[in-house]
Amino acid sequence: MDVHKPDVMLHVEVRNKINIYSHTIPGPGGMPVGTNGKAMLLLSGGIDSPVAGYMIAKRGVKIDAVYFHAPPYTSERAKQKVIDLAKLVSKYSGPIHLHIVNFTDIQLYIYDKCPHEELTIIMRRYMMRIAERLSVESGSLALITGESIGQVASQTMQSLTATDAATTMPVFRPVIGFDKQEIVDVSEKIGTYETSVLPFEDCCTIFVAKHPVTKPNLKMIERSEEKLEEKIGELVETAISTVEKVWC
Question: Rounded to two decimals, what is the model's pTM?
Fold first, then answer.
């Protein structure tokens, strides 16, 4: 018998009973959920954000989530899709408190007042602001997004910098250096891929400019946001006060 490279390795585990086994099935690994605090995941209906939530949960972070819904431009089926994704991620992270924000009036107001090439950046900045408010209320210490550098116009280095400037919280992006196939591979592994690719629109894809800015200037973005000052505060407060909460 070759004791250094045996054909079969037999393990004996002595606890209350004696367990004998020859095959080990690896689990996700990581750290116990909750040992590293809590963070707020910006959960869309796409492939990336559920993977980001899973990866942060592996490091012991308890996950809450926020979804920005835009009825009637996004359907109830789109909302249910995100609830289903939260439930799938919760198999690894533990129960998720999902905050569903009605974002329609804010999107329409931004669409009416701001340059269309800046729409996505400004909308995402207001998502970050609202997510930060909800995070403070829930005791979360950071935000989590599924952004990957260069994947779309709003995910260039300049765009991410402009987005981050809207919040004082740390923003964790665990898939920032992944290409799309690497993210897809993880989503298939954790069982979220088939739900993520269901063909329901999310609010980020409704008001998309034909030629979105890829290298936004923060001062210009802030100047455009000044056009919103008359009403945007009231719309944000309404969105926060009418949040629908779902336990997933």
Answer: 0.89
